[in-house]
Amino acid sequence: MNLKRTYTLLTAALLLLVLAGCSSGNAEPVTMEPDTFSKQDMAIYKAVNSKERVSYGMSRKDAEKVLGTGNNGIPNSYTYDPGVSVIYRDDKVVSIALWKESQGVYRTARGAEAGMSHAGIKKLYGEKYAIENAENYMDYYYDTETRQLVKSSEKELNSLSGEALRGIHMVSTVYDEEGKATIIILMDRQAATTMK
């Protein structure tokens, strides 16, 4: 009888530990391989709770459940404390920018954050498809139709219009003189070219 009671208590304790682990709000984001991309990449999360995410295509109402109330800037663009900017199209997220002030508070789905080194971001996103047109800029382009990262030129991208622009997702980064990211932007090409 004593052995049966001990077994029951151990089983119950183990079950509680498993359930506690599954419901943890501090779960780390999914590890993503460099030189790959998916729609999961088009999101940011709170550093202290990766379940609090803002993703491309999310409604403004749901985004503001995570970000709080924003201040309106240019049409359809809002800034949130600390250091997050979002552009909405038809009340859906189409651009998310992490500024310096967001460091330590928000990260991309891969774990990149403002203040991270150029080499650190390249390690997360990969080298093969990195587009570095200038010393302080680095971009990655993802074609949602082919589901492939592409190394496209500005000329090719500028020939696109409408839905085709929306089908190109980007990670765009800007660096200071020390090679630290001052801004990381996740957006579609339409938002990049028209700000809407």
Helix share, percent: 25-40%
Query: What count of helical segments does DSSP give?
Result: 6
Distance between the termini: 70 Å
Task: Write the element-wise H/E pattern from the N-terminal end onward.
Answer: HEEHEEEEEHEEHHEEH
What strand line-up does the widest sheet have? 3-4-5-6-11-10-8-9
What overall form do the CA principal axes indicate? Answer: globular
* Average pLDDT level: 84
Q: What's the number of extended β-strand segments? A: 11
Structural class by helix and strand composition: alpha+beta
Which ranges are low-confidence, i.e. pLDDT below 50, for 5 or more consecutive residues?
1-29
Computed over alpha carbons, the radius of gyration is 20 Å
Main sheet summary: 8 strands, antiparallel
Indicate the proportion of strand residues. Answer: 25-35%
